[in-house]
Amino acid sequence: MSDQHTGDFQEVLNQYEQGQLDQLSCTRCREEQVSVYFDGPREVNSMLWTRVYFYCHACRAWDRLTYPGFPPHFDENRDILGLDI
Ligand SMILES: [Zn+2]
């Protein structure tokens, strides 16, 4: 995983992996308005990958991770393309 993230983001990531997909803390503005969205899965080099976006509805900042296959708590109703960002 090549993305560089702060320790704060690691906490958000842990919460996400434990199943919290809404009202996560924003690492930038500190509002608890970050929601998780997905992009994928897509096939690249005959492997499936899914991008996971952490989008803050308060300050519009976002972070992104890429997971092989289906990421934890994948929900097709949380498609990033359904968001106007
Ligand atoms: Zn924010």
Structure characterization notes:
The protein is globular. It has one domain (7-82). Strands 1-2-3 form a three-stranded antiparallel beta sheet, with no helix packed on it. The model has no long low-confidence stretch (mean pLDDT 92). A hairpin with a 2-residue loop joins strand 1 and strand 2 (47-56). With 85 residues, it is mainly beta. Helices cover 13% and strands 33% of the residues. It starts with 6 loop residues before the first helix and ends in a 17-residue tail after the last strand. It has one helix at residues 7-17; strands at residues 34-44, 47-56, 62-68. It contains one helix and three strands, in the order H-E-E-E. It binds zinc ion. Zinc ion is lined by residues 26, 28-29, 31, 56, 58-59, 61.
Structural topology:
Blueprint: H1 7-17, E1 34-44, E2 47-56, E3 62-68
Antiparallel strand pairs: 1-2, 2-3
This protein binds zinc ion (ZN).
The site of zinc ion (ZN) has 8 residues, from loops.
Task: Describe, in short, the structure shown.
This protein is mainly beta. It contains one helix and three strands. The structure holds zinc ion.
Give the uncertain stretches in residue-range form.
none
- Strand fraction equals 25-35%
Beta strands, count: 3
Radius of gyration: 12 Å
Name the descriptors.
33% strand; 3 strands; mainly beta; 85 residues; binds zinc ion; three-stranded antiparallel sheet
